[in-house]
Amino acid sequence: MTYRVLALLFLLCSSVMAADWPQHLGPLRTGHSAETNLISSWPANGLKTVWKVPGGVGMSGIAVSQSKAVTLIQKDGKQFAIALDVKTGQTKWETVIAPAYTNAMGNGPRAFPAIAKGQAFVFSGEGILASIDLETGKLNWKHDTIKEYKGKVADYGMAASPLVVGNFVIVTTGHQNGVAIAAYSVENGELMWQTNFADPIGYSCPAFLEVAGVKQLVVFTGSHLRGLSTLGDPLWEYRYVTAYDCNIVTPLIVGKDIFISAGEDHGAVRLKITKSGDDYSLEEVWSSQGRTSVMRNEWQTSLLHDNHLFGFDNIGGAGPITNLNCINAETGKLAWQVPRFGKGNAIAADGKLFISMMNGDLIVARLDTTEYSEIGIQKVTRGTRQAPTLSDGVLLLRDDESIYAIDVKAKQ
Fold first, then answer.
1. Beta strand 119-123 with 128-133: parallel, antiparallel or unpaired?
2. How many CB atoms lie within 10 A of CB 320?
3. pTM confidence score
4. How far apart are CA 343 and CA 319, in angstroms?
């Protein structure tokens, strides 16, 4: 089993190139990029738009690999996976995945694509998982996971992005008894294993983390944080119930522990997980819950840097007031706060935060644990929930009409 897990990890990491952002939260699913030589002072004429092209409705992010940018959009009564040339914005292909998806909280697809082994894996708003050839756009295979498991679509749509681990593409989906964690063959879509729990689905993307010295799947359902082996065997669980089943963030490794957070005035916790024989035990290193919590991530996964967590703290039940907070990851204490910062999402690279806001602003700030230090701000989109994608010094963003490429390279 150890050799198999190591082989899976090698396959997960070895194909990622420096300019790639092949999945939700980037190369290592942490929201960080290793790119350097990015903007450190604001240009006199603002940031340059490299290209802007028509897109479509939806909340899917933009994955990048092999010079192609892949996202999901909705137009003309259908959900499409599309690929653009990263340098020019030229459409390389469009592939129909499913009929249009409608939801009172926003129409269209939600989940971030995952690119691996020459394929783009996409998950539609109603839970159709599909594999598409990255070069040609040919549909390789697809599964209507909700229909196959006799489940139901999550209240706000299916939002959990696929995770590729070795020859498995893993999704969190609905089952007639609650939630299903299912792994399919990357090569042919064959179901490899399936594990069910009597949990609501939630909206979090599964992660592949080292927990208590063991590489394993960590899944945040609507009511529990769960550890599973790479073959789907349940290992441990931690109950974390949030109003409306709105556990959305991706579990994050902090030191050797796991950090999770939830909005709806819920809070955050750092968990220490230890293993003795086949048994796991869990301990709260610190917990900050309720209306006075230091971090209530609504849908945005916090970013870890220099033993601090940078994140969006939403006040109230999905209310309009959101702070930008930096907390000490060791103690859970607030380091600094920008009150009423606004709703947005962020990634980190080259000592900076790149923040896309729901009002359409793009903000660049220093990744500083002592204070909020803004480099500049510029209106770019019509508004988006998605964090930017970074590829070779260019930020990719989208809204319900367009897809944008913005130059953030340092000027020589």
1. antiparallel
2. 11
3. 0.94
4. 10
Q: Report how far residue 159's alpha carbon sits from residue 155's, in angstroms, rounded to the nearest whole number.
A: 10
Q: Look up tokens 């090569």; give the residue.
A: 187
C-alpha closest to that of 131 among 103, 177, 167, 156? 167
Task: Kindly report, residue by residue over 210-243, the tens digit of the pLDDT.
Answer: 999 999 999 999 999 999 999 999 999 999 999 9
Q: What's phi and psi for 2, nearest 5 deg?
A: -60, -45
Q: CA 87, 92, 95, 100 torsion: positive or negative?
A: positive
> Residue 332 above 50 pLDDT?
yes
In the three-class reduction of DSSP (H, G, I as helix; E, B as strand; rest coil), residue 13 is classed as helix
Cβ 273 vs Cβ 284: under 8 Å: no
Averaged pLDDT for residues 292-314:
97
Residue 363 CB coordination number (10 Å): 20
Whether 235 contacts 227, CB under 8 Å: yes
C-alpha distances in angstroms, 105 versus 98, 271, 356, 380? 19, 32, 19, 23
State the Cα–Cα distance between residues 84 and 71, nearest whole angstrom.
9
Residue that has been written with the tokens 């592939």 in this structure: 95
Q: Is 179 left (phi over 0), alpha (psi -120 to 50) or beta?
A: beta
The span from the CA of 307 to the CA of 310, in Å, is 10
Identify which of 198, 197, 241, 243 has the alpha carbon closest to the alpha carbon of residue 223.
241
Find out whether 352 and 364 touch, Cβ atoms under 8 Å: yes
Structure-token pair, residue 210? 């080292």
d(CA 240, CA 1): 30
How far does the chain reach from its first CA to its final CA, in angstroms? 50
- Per-residue pLDDT tens digits for 384-398: 999 999 999 999 999
Cα 202 from Cα 173, distance rounded (Å): 9
Residue 320 φ/ψ, nearest 5 degrees: -80, -15
